[in-house]
Each structure stands twice: as C-alpha cells, then as structure tokens.
Amino acid sequence: MLTRYHIHIVDDELTNIILLEKMLNNDGFEVSISRSGIECLKQIQEVCPDIILLDVMMPEMSGFETCKHIRKNPKLADIPVIFVTALDDRDAITKAYKSGATDYVVKPVRLDELREKIRTVLYMQNLVKDKSRLLKINSEAVVLVRYIMQSLSMVKRVDNLKDVVERNSDTVCDLLQQAKLALANNDSNGIEASIEQSLGLLQFTDKTGAHLSAFVEALEMITDLMDGISLAGADEIAVKKADHEKIDELIARLDVENFH
What we know:
By secondary structure, the protein is an alpha/beta fold. It is built from seven helices and five strands, in the order E-H-E-H-E-H-E-H-E-H-H-H. A five-stranded parallel sheet has the order 2-1-3-4-5, sandwiched between helices. Helix 4 (90-99) links the parallel strand 4 (81-85) and strand 5 (103-106). Helix 5 runs antiparallel to helix 6. 19% of the residues are buried. The model is unreliable at 255-260 (pLDDT under 50).
C-alpha cells in the first residue's frame, strides 16, 4: 500500500479549512488541522507532515512567528511551509520568505495554483530525499568495498602463513628423520642438533598458528559487517566506530612480516 502524503492546514477561519480540506481529500492527501500557531507547533511535534499550509493572520501567534519556530526546531526545520494568506503586499511576502516560507499563495485561493505549488514542493522534496538516499547508499558501498579489499588482503596473508606452517612441519619431519639416523649411527651431536632445530621450528609454527587464529577472527568479523551492510536499509548505520576500532586492533596484532 502506497503511503499518502500528509498535509497540515493551519488557519483560524473554518470556511478556509473546509475549502482546503475538501480539495486535499479529493486529491488523495492525508489531512490534519490546527486552528492556531501554538496548536500547530504542538501537533507537528507528534506527527511531522510532508507540507504545512499556513495562514498569517491568526490570534496569539502569527504565521510569521509560527514559521520561525518551525525553522528553529531541528526536527521540524525541513518541513516545507506554504503561506496561504489574504496579505498580498510586497512587505508581507518578503516577511514570509524571511521567516522561512517555502512558497506563498494569496487568498482567495485558486485551487489549481495551490495544487501546482504543492506538486512542485513535493517533487523538490523527493529530489532532496533521493539525493540523500543515494549519498547514503554510496557511502555504505564505499565501506563495503573497503572491507572486501581488506578481507581479500587478509586471505592472501593467511595463505602465506599457512604455507609457512606447512613448510615448517615438513622440515620438522625431515629433522626427526635425521635424528633417527644420527641415533642409529651413535651420533649424539647430530641428534642434539636435529632436536634443537625441531623445537625451534615447532615454537615458530605455534606462534604462526596464533596469528592464523587472529586472522580468522578478523575475517569473520569483516564477513559479518559485509552481511550487515548488504541487509541494512539506506537510513541505517551499517558499520559503527567500534567495529572499525576492533578490526584495527586485530590488524595491529598481525605482524606477519616477521614470519616470511
């Protein structure tokens, strides 16, 4: 089901409200109403509309002041405000735009004109939202590519470490064979040398194995992050600062240059 655009009417004149509400309902909009600026500010805090149609001359708080309050509130500041008022002099129009108006319609309202202004404002709002969404997706894509490249680099380094472990294991087997031959020949020096070399390589292999474990931990975390990015919506934060710090910590432990 498609979400309907929500338009909030602010006017103290019932006749104007009825006219605008009928037109907007017929055009398929969701409509809410306030009879004063103060009431408007309270209502739109609870449910933000897509557009506000705002009268200027109202009791307690004018449309100009109401619009200024809207623009000062970070939660409400981006809501388009179209002034709908009987004031049509240049000073009033200038004051409206200075207070934060998006557009301006003079009463008596020509419905076709108001429809076109609403359509234009919604179109512009959608362009802004689409741009923001694309920037968000692009940002997440950059992060995803970064971690893919990082994970590919890690895979290569893991393969190198595995080769080192395998080579050392083969060498240990050869040394043990040499120790057996030395034993058969009563060569105590040969036995001792082979055993010492074997123990040194086994310690080396054990340390390399610890690095492999750290690599696996980092790769698993990167894979989870990549899955999170692919499943996250455009408005969700897929990679947190703590995730970056954790991976950086793991990488710092992987001083593999000493193992080649």
